[in-house]
Amino acid sequence: MKITDTIRRAGRSLRQAKARTLLTSLAIAVGGFTLTLALAAGAGSRQYADKIISSNIDPQMLMVVKDKTLFGDSGSGATNLGGGLREYSENATSYGGMTLKALSSDDLKIIEDNPNIEKVTPTYLVSAQYVTFASKSDKKYTTDITVFDTSVRPEIIAGSLPGDKRQIADDEVVVPEAFLSTLGVSDAQKFIGTNVTVHLAKAPTQLNEQQVQDILTKEGMAGLEKYTKPETRDVTLKVRAVSKQSVTSLSASSALFIAENTARDLSDYLTKGTSQYRSYVTVMALVKQGVDPASVKDQLADKQIYAMTAKDVQGMLFTIVNLIQGIVIGFGVLALIASIFGIINTQYISVLERTQQIGLMKALGMRGRDVSKLFRYEAAWIGFLGGVIGAVLAWGAGTALNPWITDTIGLGEGNYLLVYQPLPIAILIAILVIVAIAAGYFPARKAAKLDPIEALRTE
To answer: pTM of the predicted model, to two decimals?
Structure first.
C-alpha cells in the first residue's frame, strides 16, 4: 500500500469521528498555543534587547572596571553589589553607598597604552546639588548629568549635533525631550540657545582636632567657619540640542549630556581632596575597528583589569529572556504531556471500535506494518491539526494584543513583544507531529498484532 494512500485513508478515518478528532487535536492545540506564544515572546524580547544595545553601546566599546564583582565573580554577567567580605584596596572609592575598587591613574595608563585601544573615556561622577533653566529660573531641579557619548548619536527634535563623532563644545549641553513638559516648554526650537546653570556644592574639608585648634588659635571662629563652610560653584551651559525621547535609549530620556572636558573639570572640582579624586569606578574604552573586543578584554584581564563587551551585555539580557521563556515553555510541555495521554486513549478506543475493519483489512492481504502505519498516520494528523490550530490561535491573539501590550509596558512605537517567525513555528508543528506519532505507537502496535480471524469474530 502506497504511503499517500495510507495517509489519505488515515484522514478519512479521522473524518468519520470528527468530534473525537477535534477534541483530541484541541488538547494538542493548548500546548501548541502556549509554545508558539513562548517562541514569539522570546523572539520579540531578543529583538528589543538588540535594539537597546545597538542604540546605546558601540560594538567596539568596552566597559572597564577594577572591581570584577561589578560583573559577577563567576563570569556569568550577574552583578554582585551587596555586602559580604571584600578584599581591602587602597584605591577603593565609594559609589552609591558601596565601597568598590577604583581604576587608578596607573590603571588608566595601562589601558591607554594598549595598542588595540583607540580612546579611553572615564565615567566622571558629576553630582550637582541642583540645576536651573533660564526658561523657568524661579525653580530648581535635580537630575543626572553624564558625558555626551560620541559613539552613539541620539535622535534630535531641535538643534543639531556635531558630525564625525565629534564632541559638543565645553559650554554646551544636550537636554532630553522629557524635560520640556516639566519645564512647560512647548516649542523645542525656541529652547535652543537658552542657558542651563549647574550648581555644585563641594563638601567642606574634614578637619582633625589639632587642625581645629590651630585654626581657632590663629583665625578664631570666623576662620573655622571659612574652612567648614561648603564651597559652591555655578557653571552656565548653553542648550545645543534636544534629544528625542526613546524607549530604546538607556539615558537619553533621563539625564543632561555635557562635554567630556566639562565633565572632567566638574568631577575634579567635586572630588579633589577626597579618595575619589582621579579614580574611576568604570571607564569606557573604544577598541580599534577590525580588532575583536573580546581579545582586548582578555589582555586587560591578565593585568587584573576587567572588561565587559557589548556581546556580554547582550548575553546578560538574553539569559533573563531565556529564563522567562523557559518557564513559559515548561507550562506548554505540561499541556503536551496531558495531550499525549489523550492521543493514546483516542487511538486505543479507535482500535477497539474498528477491530472488525482491521481484521477485514488483514484478511484481504494488508500487512501488519501497514496497519501500524495507518494508525501512526492518524496520530500524525491529530498532531498536525493540533499544532496548526494552536499556532493560528496564538498568531491571531498575539497580533490583536501586540498594540495593547506595547502601549501598556511602554515598548515604544514599532516595537512588539510578540514576534512570529515562520521557521520556528514550522519546526514546532513538526515536533508536535512527532510527539503525536510517538503517543500513537502502542495503539498502532496493538492494531498490527491483531489476529484477523479473531478480529472478524468480534461483535
So the answer is: 0.65
